[in-house]
Specification:
Length: 227
């Protein structure tokens, strides 16, 4: 790769000013208020994850029938499993997207590497209006300082990377990755309330069987039409 052009553009474009602009751009991608910022994507991904893990944990304690099978509705739990892993795959792929027009961890890292010549100690300190003197800077800081297994490991890598960039490079802080308070609709009630209630009564189950059969007959008609 020819680095001469890159070095020339940096040296003639007021590096400190250019870095401040890049710095704000990176900060916005990482922790900005936009719903697609990396931090907001991580919040949503982790919130869905902890919900699923609670459901998955509850399966360990479910009652069993005389054959040793868990007495939980297979249709509902199949749908829960499929939905969780599909949405998590999409979330992870979004955060790994390398395109330059999206907010993703890969895009951020790629852009930081591309502009690595700007990452000088002086530029970073200037971006925060901090003194270049090491002792003064330190004093300032002292005063102001399985399938599921694979998914969870991907979460860990993504969160650690984003947290490292936010805390150690952009110095904007990243905070907890499981930030429940951002989801106000869950603040006003117990997340585990009514878990001991049945999902459907016997009467409702009869109606659901009727609905299923009616819908099955309807879908059969879709296969009868010929051109």
């Amino acid at each position: 790769m020819n680095t001469n052009k890159h070095k020339y553009s940096v040296s003639t474009a007021q590096p400190a000013k250019l870095f401040k602009e890049k710095f704000k751009e990176w900060e916005n991608i990482l922790v900005g208020e936009d719903q697609h910022s990396i931090r907001n994507q991580i919040y949503e991904m982790m919130f869905d994850s902890v919900f699923f893990q609670c459901i998955n944990e509850s399966r360990k304690y479910a009652a069993k029938d005389d054959k040793g099978n868990i007495k939980q509705n297979k249709m509902i739990h199949y749908f829960i499993n499929q939905s969780f892993f599909k949405t998590q795959l999409l979330s992870i792929r979004r955060l790994k997207d390398k395109r330059s027009d999206v907010y993703s961890s890969r895009r951020l890292i790629k852009d930081i590497k591309k502009n690595s010549a700007l990452l000088t100690r002086k530029n970073i300190l200037d971006a925060y209006n901090l003194p270049y003197d090491y002792e003064k800077a330190m004093e300032y800081l002292r005063q102001n300082t399985e399938a599921l297994g694979k998914v969870l490991n991907a979460h860990k890598i993504i969160c650690e990377t984003a947290s490292f960039i936010g805390n150690n490079l952009l110095f904007c802080g990243f905070g907890s990755v499981l930030h429940i308070s951002r989801y106000g609709q869950f603040d006003q009630f117990d997340l585990f309330e009514y878990l001991d209630e049945p999902i459907a009564s016997e009467e409702t189950i009869k109606k659901l069987r009727g609905f299923w059969e009616e819908y099955r007959r309807e879908t059969e008609q879709w296969n009868l039409h010929k051109i």
